[in-house]
Amino acid sequence: MGMQRTLFAVIAAVAVLAIGGVFLLGKKGGASSAGTGGDVAIENPDPLMKAHLVFGSVTAPVTVVEFGNYRCPHCRDHALKVLPRLFSEYVEKGRVRYVFRALPFSGQDDVFQASVAAECVYDQAKDRFLDYHTLLFRAVRDWAGLTGDQLDRKLIDYARQLSLDSEKLGACLKDPKVRERVRFDRDLATALGVDGTPTFFVNGQKEVGFMPFERWRALLK
Questions:
Q1: What is the per-residue pLDDT for 18?
Q2: What is the largest CA-CA distance in the chain?
Q3: What kind of architecture, by CATH, is found in domain 2-27+47-219?
Q4: Distance (Å, whole) CA 104 – CA 102
Q5: Is residue 45 within 8 Å of 191, Cβ to Cβ?
Q6: Could you report the per-residue pLDDT of 90-148, keeping only the tens digit for each?
Q7: What is the pTM assigned to this prediction?
Q8: Which of 52, 109, 148, 208 has the fewest CB atoms within 10 Å, counting from its CB?
Q9: Where are the beta strands (DSSP E) in 103-215?
Q10: Burial of 88 (C-beta count, 10 Å sphere; 0-12/13-18/19+)
């Protein structure tokens, strides 16, 4: 019974619901993460403001901005089932510019830190970002719920598996400038009215929830 009560408390604290292909923020939750600062109001928000994790040609006719969460099962489905085709058929051919943005939910310090790690990998080796991004989703059961040094060791080990500089990534995890990028993405999501993941902006048009590749093909005509 004690374990059941603990599990219920954890679920209530995270306060997210998986409904219809979208991981929803609970009504009592906020888009902030404990220990990472409060929400900051952003005037005239735009999905591309201060975009950092950017792939594809700046002259591409379509820009896609994704707000995702590394513990969101629908984001995982997008990353594993759809994203490889989007990159090979659209991004790499100059037809789409793709932007990743992080949205850790309230109480998800592990997701916040995983998002920081992804930023660090992009800074160190942009061409390995997608590999690390995918690995975070595939290994979520191993790192989700971890904290502190135990979590950092996992995130650093994933970088080592991809032959990245693990010492450099370890230092980057504590870099306040990198952590601020994740805070900004989270606050921008709030300003844009994003309350679930994945949420996409396709040339500014908001699309919510997992979409099969056929739906993407129709959107990207």
A1: 58
A2: 58
A3: 3-Layer(aba) Sandwich (3.40)
A4: 6
A5: yes
A6: 999 999 999 999 999 989 999 999 999 999 999 999 999 999 999 999 999 999 999 99
A7: 0.86
A8: 148
A9: 196-197, 199-202, 205-208
A10: exposed
